[in-house]
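[retry 2/3] Epoxyqueuosine reductase QueH: previous attempt timed out, resubmitting with same input.
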Amino acid sequence: MARILLHTCCGPCTFYPLMRLREQGHEVIGFFYNPNIHPYMEFARRLEALQEMASANDLRLIVREDYPLEDFIRNVAFREQNRCIYCYTVRLEAAARLAKKSKFDAFTTTLLYSKRQKHDLIRSVAESAAKKARISFYYEDFREGWKIGQQMAIESGIYRQQYCGCIWSEKERFYKKRRH
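[retry 2/3] Epoxyqueuosine reductase QueH: success.
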């Protein structure tokens, strides 16, 4: 049994990884740090949904409520096609540092659950963050439980977002170019 810090991007994506980690006997504490989520009301809504999910599932949470929007935009502007690298790195390095500082055995992330994320990039960034912080990274491909986790989220009635989080992903999700 290991003590694992689970970086959580949102409530819906937390159900299945939490279930899997607990089935394996791990002690799990969630960590919410997501400065990529825009606009702020979306950030607040996702945090609230995660807190509802955590309360209903007896998951202790560590929450970073700081919202460094300016840092995110500065680091992504003019590099929009590579924004995910920055997005994953800032969050997973924070998780690795916290896990090391707080004497966890390892850290992992709910980002490994989503079928819509860049799975191999997430794994690579997390492994680099682990090496840099000198902490173990727990890898599991949680995508196999996609349908199970989605059903759990639907049944819970919590907010389920429609885009990854950043303003560029919101545009890609909702804005359709006009055909001329």
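[retry 2/3] Epoxyqueuosine reductase QueH: The chain has a mean pLDDT of 92.
[retry 2/3] clearing retry counter.
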